[in-house]
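Complex 224.
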Amino acid sequence: MGMLSVSIMPVDFGRLDEEIKTIEHTGVDGIHADIMDGCFVPNITFGPDILRAVKKATSLPIHAHLMIHDPDRMLKEFADAGADWLCVHVESNVHLSRTIQHIRELDRKAAIVLNPATPLESIEYLLHDVDMVIIMTVNPGFSGQKLISSVIPKISRLREKIDNLKLPVLIGVDGGVHRDTIGELAAAGADVFVSGSEIFSDNNLEDNVKHLKEQIAALTRKKK
Ligand code: DX5
Ligand code: ZN
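Predicted structure with D-xylitol-5-phosphate bound:
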């Protein structure tokens, strides 16, 4: 069955503890922490210290989505700060298989992330070594962008490859995941749905999560 991971970019960081606890109570499956360095992407968010505060507030698994240059040099800091998953971009890495190896040595789950323009061929050789592949469905950097639907065939092709190889690798989708786009993403074969702005669009956090989770449960069950 599919999972919903909440991107915490839109939270009020002045009330971080409270906000994270509220999210946890809605019944989501994970926390997605968008780490941006102002260099790999044109925006800056937060680093290991804030992640440590997030970790303190929740027992949910945390994905650290590292939108930073040369993530290798920061993997240990983010692992120590509480990341259960380290998600690294193909485009930010020169020696991606070495980075995955490093994540394994830190005893964390490994995910590789592909920007919309990056072809699947760039990661095929690593499919046996990772726990998840995240397909970016927007160009990374900002919350609240519109899903680029021309990326969807890439999800279907990845689903086919993973199924043919009978690998236990999850497919994540990140960016523009809304109640009106989740159907096509689930049909293409996604397992993990990262959503931010839709969930925080009003004060009905609980209802928004419930709605998305119901859709994910129905759509991903249908698929299997
Ligand atoms: C984009 C981030 C996403 C994004 C998700 O750079 O990686 O995680 O903020 O948020 P929404 O759901 O608003 O697209
Ligand atoms: Zn993200």
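The domain at 3-223 is CATH 3.20.20.70 (TIM Barrel).
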